[in-house]
Amino acid sequence: MNNFDGKKLSLNHLPGKLLRKIRESKGYTQKYVAQGILRQSTYSKIEREEAEPAASKLFAILDRLEMTVEEFLFIQEKYTYSRKGKILYSFVNQKYNVPDELEKLKKEADDYLTEFEDTVVKDIQSIYESLIVFGRTHDIKLARKYVQPVWDRIEAFDEWRLTEIYLVNNIMFFFNADTAIYISSRAIDQLKKYEGFNTSAKLRYNLKFNLVYLFMDSKNYDKALTALENLIPYTKELKKHDMLAVCYARKGVSLIKSGDEKGEEWISKGLNILDIIEEYELKNLLKEEIHSFIN
User: Fold this and answer.
1) 0.85 cut: is pTM over it?
2) Do residues 138 and 248 both lie within one domain?
3) How many domains does the chain have?
4) CA distance 45 to 48
5) Cα separation of 237 and 244, whole Å?
6) Which of 54, 215, 254, 283 could link 274 by a cystine bridge, Cβ 3.0 to 4.6 Å?
7) Residue 12: which domain range?
8) 88 with 204, same domain?
């Protein structure tokens, strides 16, 4: 199970009454839900909260109810995320690295860690700290100090799961270009085994999107342009208008740095899109990025 689904599955107490409510709302009988999984009498005990199923049996029951573990846990928490789940959800879905907003997110992690020990939340706390420091000082060496332990821990793993890939996607920028490109490429390779898993497509896109910046940062503008040729049509297909604007601007920068003056047109095109969709904060951040490459 993906740790970033927003919940931690706990079988200490399975809410059997919730299972019954879901089953009845779909018009299913106990016999239908239990068929091929366990005895109907055993399933009846689960709904009465007199028995606990093995995790594999629970997953099969939820599948029969056309429900993911994530959705079940979300409903269990009265249609909201758990405290840790909110921290993970905010981390995965943060859009822009604005220090004041990151401070708020970091405080949630800080408060959680005063009560609980949690490796992933600790990593997130460190990543927020590095992003805040870099946003305010632009001192990449100082910022790297906070995420180095995160990378040291994850690098030692033979295999990365989605949790680790989400984390490395947010720290690779703090390392030198070769290391960053290695991290990104390894993450994309590790994602191959998740082909078809619903959340992996978004993560794969984000990694490829960020890889363009890494190519630009290492002055590999030809590689950046090649990557964008594949990324721009896919971004259009996904209707990610804000990301499409960034892709256009980065294509423009890469063309200019390759000696093609037509790059100015692409930059203007990207900034105009952000005006149309009223993403003014992103526009300012993008203009800073453009300025850092061209001037």
Assistant:
1) no
2) no
3) 3
4) 5
5) 10
6) 283
7) 3-80
8) yes
